[in-house]
Amino acid sequence: MPSRAKKRQRLAKTPPDTEEERDTASTNNSISAATTTTTTTDDKHKIFTTFALSQGITITNVAPSLLPGRGMGLLTTAPIRSGTTIIHVPPKAMLLPRPSNNLSPQAALTSHLLHLSTTSDPRYAACATVWPTRSDFRSSLAWFAPTDRNLDYKHLFPKSLAGAYERLVVDAEHDRTALGREEGDEEFMYHWAIANTRSFSWKPAGAREGRMVICPFLDYMNHCQAGDGCEVKMDSRGYTLVANRNYDTGEEILATYGAHSNDKLLAHYGFTMPGSQDDSISLDEIILAGKHAHKEQRHTLESVGYLGNYSLTPSTNEICFRTQVALRTRLLTSNEWEYYMGSGDDIANDKSEEVKESLCRMIRGHIENMTDMTTKLKQVRDEGKGHTQVLSSILERWRQIQDALQKYIDPFGT
Questions:
Q1: Rounded distance, CA 41 to CA 44, Å?
Q2: What distance in Å separates the CA atoms of residue 312 and residue 283, rounded to the nearest whole number?
Q3: N- or C-end of the chain: fewer Cβ atoms within 10 A?
Q4: In which element (H, E) is residue 409 found?
Q5: What is the pLDDT of residues 160-187, one digit of tens each?
Q6: Where are the compositionally biased (Low complexity) regions (predicted)?
Q7: How far is residue 126's CA from residue 131's CA, in Å, rounded to a whole number?
Q8: Longest Cα separation, the chain
Q9: Crossing angle, helix 159-178 and helix 105-116, to 10 degrees?
């Protein structure tokens, strides 16, 4: 069961949300069982479901379930027809911070959660019983604990993944400073991670400012690739999850968090989706390597806004237009290159095959380096000094990258 945050003095920057505090008295009795009874994993989720219903959350034929190897998710308890409202969370049931002009939306939500953790707020107390624990975050997120951020094997991560981790650390440090929290503050980091992994964007039509909010019960929902899964709607009445098709009993209810690559999913949430059509493989490290990109070529690409952000889409085995433009700097005259950049067509002979062959030569050398990196990372993991789950996930990401690159070069032989 997740630990409640330590009692702290009330944060000066986060005064009580009066809308929530007005509702506190009417909900205290509903949460008493969840906060005073030692329960099994199944029991605590049943108690939380009862509490969610008492807050006006609509729940239709779904229940939280432990999925082997995947954590918690939502399974249907009875058939559901397409178009059915499965879950509806009204604003009064959300953990909803006040808008702030001085804080990022994530910092504002983190600050709000930190404040609620020092009170007897029943909604916070109920949510805290089913949130991931600090141990859960530490085992799955490489950036969670301050000591984890200085891992001496970060150089063995894929560059694109290491970059995503670093951006998260920078964001967390910026928000920590904005809230005036001390370096290494575990309570801040835990609640920032909750905000990062479980929140929803909240900006109904007509609202002047957007916020990040916690939608109790709806946040049990797991991710699927864009275009699949249920529809999530937001308006002034709250968040609504609508069935996208007919469901039989025992099926998992999914919705997309966004069209994210596996680098982002792994960095932010601690998992990947093998085979996802949303995945992309960064080619920056390959194309911009010193031996491939001369200073003049870099300058040329930068001057027109085409330096970096090159990618391969594994589901289609195609490279992006930015990559096509970058690789043609080596093959075309300046006039031909500018024509291609503006039209997407080669003015003379089609250079598509030459572009692919050029990229394949770069990829072959990179795959050899990848093999060396993964061998070293496996050795670190197998030494058993901790972070086993994190390192296994990163090795899986390496495998996905290597498989995608190998698939791209296979038609061209060795």
A1: 5
A2: 7
A3: C
A4: helix 388-409
A5: 999 999 999 999 999 999 999 999 899 9
A6: 25-39
A7: 9
A8: 76
A9: 60
